[in-house]
Amino acid sequence: MQTAETFAILAAGSFFLVGLLTGVWKYQQIHSREDAEAHPYVNIAHRTALLYAFACLLLAQFARLSVLSDLVNTIAVAVQVVFFAAAVLSYVVHGWLADTDNQLRKPHQLGQSRVPGGVVALFMWALIAGEIGGFVVLFYGVILGL
């Protein structure tokens, strides 16, 4: 098994575990709140972690089928996984702090502080480029091998 595939499978297991744990957190909030609803970002963290677990299994399969070098495939997988993790982490932080129900609403809140809009925009464009670019590399490697 190549490094890229192994990394993607380990990431899948990690995201699935985070999804299960945030599910407990979500249930705890639903159970303890008068409105019987978890904070929106607790919901988002839970669902996103579960979805990224399965996305990482797809990445593992594409890495396995790609004819590109293991180094190229590993970088492509790692870029995507890092951005997946950063997204889930931001959702967990907003859920923990209960500071916003929309992290993209201006002004951008992080606890009691404000985050400059340029930082948020730069991160979002980097995330878009990293996730799509990483997948395009893997997909290209698969297409070459067909």
Describe this protein's structure.
This protein is mainly alpha-helical and 146 residues long. The protein has a single domain, classed as Up-down Bundle (Four Helix Bundle (Hemerythrin (Met), subunit A)), CATH 1.20.120. 77% of the residues lie in helices and 4% in strands. It is built from four helices and two strands, in the order H-H-H-E-E-H. It has helices spanning 3-32, 40-65, 70-97, 117-145, and strands at 108-110, 113-115. Strands 1-2 form a two-stranded antiparallel ribbon. Helix 1 (3-32) runs parallel beside helix 3, helix 2 (40-65) packs antiparallel against helix 3 and helix 2 (40-65) runs parallel beside helix 4 (117-145). The chain is flat. The model has no long low-confidence stretch (mean pLDDT 96).
List the helices and strands and how they pair.
Layout: H1 3-32, H2 40-65, H3 70-97, E1 108-110, E2 113-115, H4 117-145
Antiparallel strand pairs: 1-2
Helix pairs in contact: 1-2, 1-3, 2-3, 2-4, 3-4
Features:
146 residues; two-stranded antiparallel ribbon; mainly alpha; Four Helix Bundle (Hemerythrin (Met), subunit A); flat; 4 helices; 77% helix; 4% strand
Summarize the structure.
Helices cover 77% and strands 4% of the residues. By secondary structure, the chain is mostly helical.
Question: In total, how many domains does the architecture comprise?
Answer: 1
CATH T-level fold name: Four Helix Bundle (Hemerythrin (Met), subunit A)
Structure classification: mainly alpha
Give the number of helices. Answer: 4
Strand order of the largest sheet: 1-2
CATH class: Mainly Alpha
Let me know the average pLDDT. Answer: 96
